[in-house]
Structures are given as C-alpha cells and as structure tokens.
Design goal:
The protein has six helices and eight strands; from the N terminus they run H-E-E-E-E-H-E-H-E-H-E-E-H-H. By secondary structure, it is an alpha+beta fold. It has an eight-stranded mixed beta sheet with strand order 4-3-2-1-5-8-7-6, with helices on both faces. Helix 4 links the parallel strand 6 (122-123) and strand 7. It starts with a helix and ends in an 11-residue tail after the last helix. The structure holds zinc ion.
Length: 213
C-alpha cells in the first residue's frame, strides 16, 4: 500500500471511529521533501490517491487539489518538531465540546499523560487557517503530543500518522470520560508525584516485553 493509500484508509477510519465530523478533519504525513496532506473540503469516501496534496515546508504544493485550509498548522508542526511524522486534526464531539468551554483536560485519569504531560492544554482561539491559530497550537503543544483548540477542535501528533491517530482516539475517549464525570461532580485529580511516576513508566512500557508476552 502506498503512503497515499494508507492515508486515505486512515482518513476513512477517522469517520468510522467518530473522530471526523463531516469533512472537518485533516491528516498529514511527513515524506521526502515535505509532507502529504488531505485536500480541502472533500468527502473521505470519494478520495483517490491523486487527491492527496504534496506540500513542501515552504508552503507551496503540487497536485490536482487545494490543500486543507489548516495546512499552516501541519506545516508549522512538521517544520518545528523533527520527531513528529504525522499530524491529525479533527472536530471530534467531546474534545471540541470541552474546547468550546475553553477547558483543558486535567489529570482526572492517568491516561492523560499519554499526550506527554500532566494535562492536555486548550490552545487559544484564532480564525481557522490563520497563522495566529498555528502559533497558538504550537504553544499548546509544547512538551505535548496533543491539544484542544478553543471553539474549534483538537489536534494530535505522533512519530507516524498511525500513532497520531491512536493518540487522537485516546484524547477523544478521555474527553468523553471527563465530560461524563463532570455531569456528576468535580473529578478528583491525580497528584503531581503520581503523574511523574506514570510518565516515567511510559518510557519503558510496551518496549521491553517480547511480542509473545
Ligand atoms: Zn478544523
């Protein structure tokens, strides 16, 4: 499967997983000479490999489609975070609902640390597609692999697009849990010492065990 085909398959999985709302999600993957990006406003079911846009880090692009209107965020993340290989942006229901309240996701559950720190921040609001929005997102992503975006959505990154996807599913699950817990009361937050312990555990988790374990 080519990189473009794999990207389309993942985009369709976003729909099936409920991450995507309409045509509002977008994906990018680093490749030689730049990155591949989903096109602007196209239904993922109709996507063909030639619809995926090849962009360079200088913001120019080639292909038969216009790139996603959020190309700046993808470009800026990939240009400033060399460890990142894939970026996913979506308007998923629970992450976006919290983002509309401008509420970050605190350490109400230990899995919040999967995004790289003690919370999942909410980036300040700016108009979609703007440089200002990209700056806000980069700030909220500092030391993290995911953030919410005020009155807009969420974003997750990974060393590959597949890992960005897995993290996005995790963030949306956490947002849904946090949302539900808030219906009943104020969730108890984990202490900084415990979060430090969990963050430390992730450094070896899943890497030391053999495939059969
Ligand atoms: Zn968006």
């Amino acid at each position: 499967m080519s990189a473009r085909e794999a990207m389309i398959a993942l985009a369709r999985r976003m729909n099936a997983a409920g991450l995507n709302q309409g045509t509002s999600g977008n994906l990018s993957q680093r490749v030689e000479g730049g990155f591949l990006l989903t096109p602007s406003g196209m239904d993922y079911d109709a996507l063909e490999p030639e619809d995926i846009v090849l962009m360079r880090l200088d913001g120019t692009h080639e292909g038969r489609r216009e790139p996603s209107s959020e190309w700046r965020i993808h470009r800026d993340v990939l240009a400033t975070r060399p460890e990142v290989g894939g970026v996913l942006h979506a308007h998923s229901m629970f992450s976006t609902s919290l983002a509309c309240l401008r509420r970050p996701i605190p350490a109400f559950h230990y899995m919040v640390t999967r995004a790289g720190g003690v919370d999942i921040r909410c980036a300040d609001y700016a108009t979609f597609g703007s440089e200002e929005l990209s700056r806000h997102v980069l700030g909220a992503l500092e030391g993290r692999r995911a953030c919410l975006m005020a009155n807009h959505g969420m974003l997750a990154v990974g060393d590959s697009l597949a890992s960005a996807y897995r993290l996005a599913v995790e963030v949306e699950t956490l947002a849904a849990m946090y949302w539900r817990a808030l219906q009943v009361g104020e969730p108890v937050l984990l202490e900084p010492e415990e979060l430090a312990r969990v963050l430390d555990k992730w450094k070896t988790y899943g890497q030391t065990a053999s495939p059969r374990d």
